[in-house]
Amino acid sequence: MDPTDPRTHDLGFARVDVDRAARTGDPEVVLGQGKRPEQVVALLRTLHERHPDRMVLATRLGPEALDLVAGELPDAHVDEVARAATLGPPPAPRGRVLVVAAGTSDAPVAAEAALSVAAHGAGVARIDDVGVAGLHRLLAVRDELAAADALVVVAGMEGALPSVVGGLVGVPLVAVPTSIGYGASLGGVSALLGMLNSCAPGIGVVNIDNGYGAGVLAARIARQSAR
Amino acid sequence: MDPTDPRTHDLGFARVDVDRAARTGDPEVVLGQGKRPEQVVALLRTLHERHPDRMVLATRLGPEALDLVAGELPDAHVDEVARAATLGPPPAPRGRVLVVAAGTSDAPVAAEAALSVAAHGAGVARIDDVGVAGLHRLLAVRDELAAADALVVVAGMEGALPSVVGGLVGVPLVAVPTSIGYGASLGGVSALLGMLNSCAPGIGVVNIDNGYGAGVLAARIARQSAR
Amino acid sequence: MDPTDPRTHDLGFARVDVDRAARTGDPEVVLGQGKRPEQVVALLRTLHERHPDRMVLATRLGPEALDLVAGELPDAHVDEVARAATLGPPPAPRGRVLVVAAGTSDAPVAAEAALSVAAHGAGVARIDDVGVAGLHRLLAVRDELAAADALVVVAGMEGALPSVVGGLVGVPLVAVPTSIGYGASLGGVSALLGMLNSCAPGIGVVNIDNGYGAGVLAARIARQSAR
Amino acid sequence: MDPTDPRTHDLGFARVDVDRAARTGDPEVVLGQGKRPEQVVALLRTLHERHPDRMVLATRLGPEALDLVAGELPDAHVDEVARAATLGPPPAPRGRVLVVAAGTSDAPVAAEAALSVAAHGAGVARIDDVGVAGLHRLLAVRDELAAADALVVVAGMEGALPSVVGGLVGVPLVAVPTSIGYGASLGGVSALLGMLNSCAPGIGVVNIDNGYGAGVLAARIARQSAR
Amino acid sequence: MDPTDPRTHDLGFARVDVDRAARTGDPEVVLGQGKRPEQVVALLRTLHERHPDRMVLATRLGPEALDLVAGELPDAHVDEVARAATLGPPPAPRGRVLVVAAGTSDAPVAAEAALSVAAHGAGVARIDDVGVAGLHRLLAVRDELAAADALVVVAGMEGALPSVVGGLVGVPLVAVPTSIGYGASLGGVSALLGMLNSCAPGIGVVNIDNGYGAGVLAARIARQSAR
Amino acid sequence: MDPTDPRTHDLGFARVDVDRAARTGDPEVVLGQGKRPEQVVALLRTLHERHPDRMVLATRLGPEALDLVAGELPDAHVDEVARAATLGPPPAPRGRVLVVAAGTSDAPVAAEAALSVAAHGAGVARIDDVGVAGLHRLLAVRDELAAADALVVVAGMEGALPSVVGGLVGVPLVAVPTSIGYGASLGGVSALLGMLNSCAPGIGVVNIDNGYGAGVLAARIARQSAR
Amino acid sequence: MDPTDPRTHDLGFARVDVDRAARTGDPEVVLGQGKRPEQVVALLRTLHERHPDRMVLATRLGPEALDLVAGELPDAHVDEVARAATLGPPPAPRGRVLVVAAGTSDAPVAAEAALSVAAHGAGVARIDDVGVAGLHRLLAVRDELAAADALVVVAGMEGALPSVVGGLVGVPLVAVPTSIGYGASLGGVSALLGMLNSCAPGIGVVNIDNGYGAGVLAARIARQSAR
Amino acid sequence: MDPTDPRTHDLGFARVDVDRAARTGDPEVVLGQGKRPEQVVALLRTLHERHPDRMVLATRLGPEALDLVAGELPDAHVDEVARAATLGPPPAPRGRVLVVAAGTSDAPVAAEAALSVAAHGAGVARIDDVGVAGLHRLLAVRDELAAADALVVVAGMEGALPSVVGGLVGVPLVAVPTSIGYGASLGGVSALLGMLNSCAPGIGVVNIDNGYGAGVLAARIARQSAR
């Protein structure tokens, strides 16, 4: 491998894909899980140096990583609820994403999704705690749902919210199952299966608790809807 | 074993539990699956002889069994959609059960549930095709839902209908997942998991496609609600 | 969304469904899992203010939440075995639910079920430690089982108790699998499957360890049986 | 329920949601699975009468249903590979979707996706047989991938194609796992899991073999990208 | 491999383990599943020639294999219910096994178990249709259960019968789950899990529908109990 | 329930089945899992008082329970490897059980099995570390295997040892899968499935890590083999 | 895509990867599953034209495809047991692979593996019916096992054979689980799990029934061992 | 068992298979999981005494075991990343293995594989962080891949890397799924399934996170390729 290939940047423990923004329009993101705090800091710093004009993102950070980022990178923005950090100015938002969550316990995943939307260049708003057991809360926001360029719908337990939202409006919808629940929720698998089997069409599903992936997809949809 | 025990009736291939009505208030029912058509006929006939005043029921009958029952037991009522047959007069209905189904493909299970309710002594009505992707259909029947003594809610795919119904009314609710779906529906397991993880409380779930079991439970609830 | 909608009450982190009692006859309940102790206290207080005449309930509370509730809400009743707390006077009981548990290790789930029954307006009694490996203990209480308006049957491991009880009496039966067991119990999935496949009809099953949901369903059945 | 409600149309066996186009921009589609051929014909005819200006679609049709549609509805277009039929003129296409398939055996699902895109108002093109074991075939079409408004990527077996495509371009991507494979493919579950766990972000996944759902989502994305 | 090794006998398509009786006390048995009818006949004939004094057994025979065995081996005994055939005189029975089955649909597995017991040298009796939903039928045979040297207990659905029997008597018990059931019975997996998690100790479980394996184990226990 | 029923003994938190020895020949055993240390001590003491002449057993004890038993019941014997404790003199051994384990990590389960055999009245010996990857170790003990009245065979990972032992000797064999392994061992499920699908007949399987259940079954077989 | 790219050959329904031999040393193989018989014939013919000097292979052919190949391609060799066909002369064999199978029912998979080895340029021999329940059959061929350059070990049910072989010799071993079995064999998943969890190291596992994949890997190992 | 059998060495708690090197060419390895630190030290010491001329290996060591090994065996080499230790000089390397890893989080498994290759007598090199979402990184090392005698390919999440590598080169390939991922990665099961279903042939898969087993197989292939 050619260490001078400008498309990669070798940190010793990692080979940063600095070419990704050229290929896909979005820079690489640091997945904090399984990485040591100092690796997170080094990766964030490297990505920031390569993309000084555009916010870079690190997700799935534990308390130690959040602390070290705050200490070592004073310009970083740390989001405790989303368990994430960013560095650099956000891109100008194009289009508008609405992040909808079923319950208060889904807040961390919804926050990660919203932050990821912003970091990937779309506008974002949130509506929380509109689970299907209280339909009037959801029906009250129908117009807001219909006005978005893309929806991110976050729910645990039986994961029914995307089906109901997808029957109300025809906006492109990204569904995020969460691991909220117990027993037969099987760590989020029940919500995941519910969303995959939705009787409403036009729903794309991401991995359990994957607010980040949902945010990227929704941002890409919203951005090009606004072009 | 004492072959003269009046609580059982030995047919050679089966030992009919003729005491069940005394213990539980309901006679034994013939589960047709895995039985030969002539066994179904013999069991129906025996149960009818022991319970001449009360409809007896056979479920999960294949085409051959339905035909043989119709031929051998001219007084039997055969329900092709429910894949079931009854013999004898229905009990006087007490209370009222509403059977609600999400899609047209759920009709066989809903029919089995409704027939089982009637055979177990409660009144029954049905509302079909009110899936969660078209909420206005469901909201239009909210008063009917609230007026029942018990609800049987039948749905396949993601199985979200019980959650939405359970958030609209506080009537005792029996949920029946069906095997309608494909791929990640896993033969009805996804709908089953969805119902078990419902965010609305007060929902009891039965086995996949088990309209019979749901009908028995709903009838028992409705009967005693009317006493 | 209209923040002045009287049907919801916005706490910032949660949107309380204060309309639920009007729709379903029962107020919303605080599911403590995944919520911070101070959120539990705030939610309990809000629900109590909206329903001062009727006991409100919080379940799945960890030790910290139980402590904070006891400290912050001196009028609350804390049930350490059920890992739950209530605030406000219990509704006058209508009808009678019997909670039956297979083993001593099932006590927390049985306690949660019993407390939920009481909070939802039905009378309640308990019978513990009557597993199927000692049938004489169960047969000795057959008359008590038959006299109830609804049964909640709690069991872990192979989950056979509902089948045996359901063969003894025809009372509406809510079965609760517990996560008690090891190895092939798969965290309660085996007990759940056993209950769903019961050869006795008329059994509604709830999620693993879901004493609360079982209590709500049983209370609703018992209440209307007594009207 | 009000039978004169203009938002539903009661066929006896089904309650057609003719209001869906008003809510979501797209008319209801007939899911042929589990329906009798004459039901399929009646539903297609009803939907066509309500939406004479816009193609309506029936999917998952068996040979008998395809034959009956061809016989009873001479104006219908029958697509044998996609196992689907349409009636009425296609909407004017807005935006452009590219349907990419890994192997020749994935053709039926890719064809269903492409037909669904067209019926939902977007332009569509296909690239087949570009599995990851022959990367040069995929790299040769990189520019075509990048030029689309939305991608539908269809693959069975290990389902790796979306990961590779998602690393090459940043176009919104809908991934469809297929049931092609054997043994540990578990009827498409392995491909589904592969796509959900993709290391490339921005991928929304639909149910196994669900070309229809993928087509609807991709068409919605492409349509609004062209507005 | 030495083709003259007296411990194996090469049939071209199979290498018969004629030494097995010397090692384990029991000759090899022909598992018919996956073998062609003429292979079954050849294997039965070979085993009979090597063990002329002792019944040899073929199990899991389809209709064609049963017919060919009957035609080609006139001395064979064909058991249509057990889907099995034997050749040669049964060993003198030592000890006594009781085969207990929960439902009439379990008869084929119970019959295979009983035949296997007899072929492996123990006496055998059967009690059928004593499922746990009718306890009086089981309690009526308690003395018979206690008098056996070994029990084979056969049940499908929730598989609760071994738990109840194992709580009534302390006889060595071999439990056989069957594939009888539907939906969440998962082809017998639920019954299997139920038996493995039994709250009664002293139960050994075999594969789903494996009457043969249970019969061998029970016969070995009974034989040595009588020595 | 009659609190004076001599067949049960009410401890407040538990109803001890003191009649079990009369029914099954063996007293009840304390399953420590899910019980508090002081409950374990109280149950052991009660069982000992009812069965002063016969060792009683408590299994699955955590470090705190082991310590409290040692402190509160000085006559108890504590087995740290087996995580178990006994109280009272062992019954005179009848027959002989051999406990065979595949690896050193299986020692706790093998120890629990051996202790359970002794507590249930049979003689016991152990052979450890004879996994199938080193067949000479197993072949060297073939005569010892053949001389036992019953075998308990303990193995984790692929669980192949019972198949190999069951092909060497015809002794009744109880197989115990253990949770030793990682990744695709799925907490012992792979070993369990391996044992259930053994190509050697005559093997009864118990739950994962259930040395106790295996010991009871093996002891019952050995005891009656010696009568 | 450039239709003149010499690395692919477009058949209309498929894009043949004729460059594969240059990249990997082996030509593409036709996987018959999911393809129509005439597609199989066209693909075999095309591959043969591109590789006239080297045998090309089609696997997983149904009876119709086997017949059409025999009729349309008279020079093809059809292997009914392996359900496969070849066209063209076999490569000169380098190195030696031994294919070992546990039972007679595993013959189709073993035959596919052996044919694949030959088509990929290594010598091959077979040993059948050496299951672990008759160890003497396996021990008798230990020297043959040790002399091979690579082993393919085929087994269904518990899949224990690779563990035992892998403990006897240190030859590179490719394990193939088969779908032979019933009940808890879960269509070969149990054998697959057994092989993945083998206590003997140095075993690579392929998909259930994937004799082809195992043959390719073993041939590559054997070929380079002989260079 | 003969304690003087030179093929085993009894440590009290374990029976070391010191004959393994004679049978398979490689000495036994200490699997640290489930063993106490002092057992690890004793086993390493014993194996080293028996194989003084050849490196012996202990894997899956926790921090305590790593510390005790370092303290008690000063000649040992401790690899913190691989969580492993070796004692004695490495064998002279024959042939060359390349260990390829998809992400930085896969480093511990890749390190275990590389160390195992070296301990089993082959040369080894590593390439890290070449996941399929950045193909240019992989294409840049194609020649290095093709030059190896065997490849170990390590990946978590969707596990697609072996498919892509196996389509680029025809080198014998051992695939190692890792437990890196979350949600639907199911602890590595998704990556495992992806590798088993690879559309590229010639891939042997080992257990999740089993770098050791992959290293042994790859070393054996490489060694004999160089003979």
TrEMBL record, chains A, B, C, D, E, F, G, H:
Record-linked PANTHER family: PHOSPHORIBOSYLAMINOIMIDAZOLE CARBOXYLASE-RELATED, SLL1489 PROTEIN
Listed GO MF terms: hydrolase activity
InterPro entries, A to Z: P2CMN_synthase_LarB, PurE_dom
Any GO BP: 'de novo' IMP biosynthetic process
SMART domains: AIRC
Protein name: PurE domain-containing protein
PurE domain boundaries: 95-227
Source species, domain of life: Bacteria
Stretches that traverse the bilayer: none
